[in-house]
Amino acid sequence: MSVQIIKGKYLIFKSDKTSEVKFRKELSKLIIDTFGKKDYTIDETTKIISFSLDYFVEKFREICLNETSVRFYQHIFKFHEHSVEIVYNFSDERNNQDSEIDFNYIAKYRRVLKYILEMGCEVKMHNQEASTIALKTRIENKLNDLLFLGEMILTCVSLYAEQTMIEDINEIRFEDDLYVFSRKHHYDFIFQHIKQEFGGQLTKAVVDNTEYAGLADLKQALKNCFDISYDNVGHIIASIHEQNKSKGGDVVGVNWDAFPLNLSAMFGVDSENAKLFFKGLTLDKSNKMPLLDLACKPYKLNRYLYKPIIIWNIEGEDYALVGKHSWSETFIQLASNAIPWGKAPEEWLKNNCFRKYVNEKEDAHDKWLDDAVEEKLIHNKIYYERNLKSIDNVDINNEEVGEIDFIIISEKLKKIFIADCKHLLGRYDTPNQRNDYNVFVSGKKPYNKTLERKVTWFKKNKQLIQNHFDKKYQSVFIDILDFEIEGIFIINTPTLYMYNSTFRIYSITQIENVVLGTHEDPTFTIFVDEADKTGILNINYPYFNKPQYNIIDPFEDTEQENP
Questions:
Q1: Which parts of 158-296 are beta strand (E)?
Q2: 479: which DSSP letter?
Q3: pLDDT above 70 (res 556)
């Protein structure tokens, strides 16, 4: 273990992995005692993953609830603040192999630190411990444990999400009576390919093109609707930290009322508006999620990422803490990854003006992707129609069909694409992307069913498409009655389901090549050399189908013997 100093000032705790042995040994015995030691079925594998997740969650909770010194949580608070500042100050170094920052480690590290801070809301803390060597050692040991447990919580949640989306993907085996979680077949190889492909596409995702990706708009909405200046709130937080500098600055708690009272007294903000504003940003034991939900439902706003004022009970009194970097992180996340999808703190939505702003932002955001698609079609002189509610005087804006985002004609492929644009949240891990899978496949109105209905209708009414485009393009249009009709989705940012979907899903970076007929799905050939089989896998789209192995017979003699 060591506390590393990054960029000459930021403290980052690096785990030494010693905690893995004790937890892995204990869980392995529990799995064997409960499920036996054998080749598990898919259903048994899923149950073991869930069983393991419960184990890691309970151990994590136990450590946090048994740690009652506020000193411990203050150290976690400071580590977290440093990690956030690193990410936002040096994000341009993500793809720099020479950077001293391990961004993959920081990503998991920050999430686990957030878990610990949120668990602190459930703890009755004391302030009776001085900073000693014994405290330092205890912090190191517990943080080692919690970082391992937190990483395994994230791992199990990902494994469980994969189990529900992909056929026969994970296996659990034992080496020296210790569990090993691994992916089967060619799936690990495909995940590595996807990771590389995501990296390039994420940088080109369609986002709010207003100033600072919507942050300036959000600040203006707060001013218009609550009469609250974002900068004034920042001054209040900075002032509170400065007043408590001798006691610990930003890791010292104050009475929660200090925030709205100061905002009203210093800047004349209506007291109810001030309370609603700060309440919407406050996380305490009454509104925090259980740890299991926190890990499994990353799309929920009741988490520290979106509520940077955290309430801890210290010596029987509730105190509020807020870090300036976590504060900034929250507003960036709200502007870019919440409000455009109609999500905002419940307390803020009680304000009619702000609710209207969120609704308008959600409506506008639906057009970003459509505009980007149209721009590419125009540039390449592709025949298309956008946002159809009727075609050749036939109303289709009904339950049988519904509005069509795009009809696109590909002369090269002799195809008519019926395209639905889906502006997805940026999701960078499997649990998050499970939500994309759900909206396409299941739910009340799955996207796949909706598109299937549209495609079926247009296959029966292809002449209407011909008539519509004959009128729009008149003498230059072509005969498309023998063209194939295909339903596709166009998305703003990549997601796992696009590699195994019922209808093809293409990102905005791919759609030009798709329509022009130059898009090619990668294909792979993998040689498999395992104890129970040796063979060759030819992998094509869809990439997550359980493969058929071309088995190589090791005893087959390929040479012709002389008669």
A1: 170-175, 178-183, 282-283
A2: -
A3: no
Q: What is the average pLDDT value for the chain, to the nearest integer?
A: 89
Residues facing 487 on adjacent strands: 418
DSSP state of 542: S
CA dist 27 and 30 (Å) reads: 5
CA separation for the pair 57, 54 (Å, rounded): 5
Query: pLDDT exceeding 90 applies to what percent of the chain?
Result: 69
Residue 383, by phi and psi: left (phi above 0), alpha (psi -120 to 50) or beta?
Answer: beta
Q: Picking from 12-16, 246-250, 329-333, 485-489, which range would have the lowest pLDDT averaged per residue?
A: 246-250
Q: Look at residue 304 and give its three-state secondary structure.
A: coil
- Rounded Cα–Cα distance for residues 86 and 80 (Å): 10
Joined tokens for residue 462: 């292809």
Amino acid at 161: A
Distance, CA of 112 to CA of 232 (rounded, Å) = 31
Spatial CB neighbours of 227, under 8 Å, sequence gap ≥ 6 = 268, 269, 270, 273
Q: Are 524 and 510 in contact (CB under 8 A)?
A: no
Q: Of residues 252 and 354, which shows the higher confidence score?
A: 354
State the Cα–Cα distance between residues 96 and 103, nearest whole angstrom.
Answer: 10
| Residues contacting residue 170 through CB under 8 Å, at least 6 positions apart | 45, 49, 159, 162, 163, 181, 182, 183, 184
205: closest CA among 365, 83, 89, 32?
365
Strands 534-539 and 394-395 come out as unpaired
pLDDT at 461 over 60: yes
Cis-peptide, bond into residue 260, ω within 30° of zero: no
Q: Which residue, 111, 88, 108, 113, is CA-closest to 331?
A: 88
Query: Closest Cα to residue 169, out of 191, 193, 195, 149?
Result: 191
Name the one residue in this structure whose structure tokens are 């970097």.
325
Tell me which of 197-206, 363-372, 436-445 is least confident.
Answer: 197-206
Q: Where are the alpha helices (DSSP H) in 474-558?
A: 511-516
Q: How many CA atoms lie within 13 A of 138 on its CB side?
A: 18
User: Which DSSP symbol is given to 290?
Assistant: P
Helices (H) and strands (E) in the chain, counts: 18, 18
pLDDT class of 207 with cuts at 50, 70, 90: very low
For the chain, helix, strand, coil in percent to 5 are 50, 15, 30
Residue 563 reports pLDDT greater than 50: no
Contact 494, 507 (CB under 8 A): yes
Query: Of 3, 91, 42, 31, whose CA–CA distance to 546 is shortest?
Result: 42
Answer for the pair 424, 439: CB distance below 8 angstroms, yes or no.
Answer: no
Token pair for 471 = 């009128």
